[in-house]
Amino acid sequence: MDRNIGWLTNVVILVFGLVFLFEAIKIPAGFADSIGPRLVPVSVAIATIGLTLLLMLVDWRTADPEETSHDITARNLLVQAGPMLMLAVLSGLMIGWLGYLLATAIGGVVIFRLFANSWRLSLANGLACAIVFYLLFIKGMGIYDPPGTILDISNYLIW
Question: What is the predicted pLDDT for the residue at 93?
Fold first, then answer.
């Protein structure tokens, strides 16, 4: 039973990675080079897909789930990285849906909660990080700010 749940989880993460890669490729290329702002989202998508396929291979090769070998250790490391990769994929999709600032704030709150912080501390840190990153990357460095397709608040920002 646990083996089937593991395979189902792997397939879900793989689908998220493929969808994220498809969405990341749609980001417009930069003016100076052909990669532009796509580099990080495409890299995260490829890492997610590759690590998920590796995890599926480790699960397939491990005949006995109770067996203690180096494969089990590798599997445990990949399983621990899964939620963070899933959050990276979802953050990339949220940037397309909600714009950079809201997606970064939501992702920041979730990351701080994953590390067992209180809701109040997670909310404060997530919002502070989102504002600092927005001012640094979008305003300071002039990186492309994708408008959200569902909700776009960038027109209402006074900075």
Answer: 82
Last residue of a domain, one of 97, 132, 150: 97
Maximum pairwise Cα distance, the chain: 59
Dist CA 145 CA 117 (whole Å): 29
Tell me: do 17 and 72 sit in the same domain: yes
The verdict on 25 and 61 lying in the same domain is yes
Distance of CA 90 to the CA centre of its chain: 5
Number of domains in the chain: 2
**103 shares its domain with 89:** no
* Alpha-helical regions (H) of the chain: 2-25, 39-61, 70-98, 100-114, 119-133
pLDDT, tens only, 114-154: 777 788 988 998 889 888 888 887 777 777 777 788 887 76
The CA radius of gyration of the chain, in Å to the nearest whole number, is 18
91 and 146: one domain? Answer: no
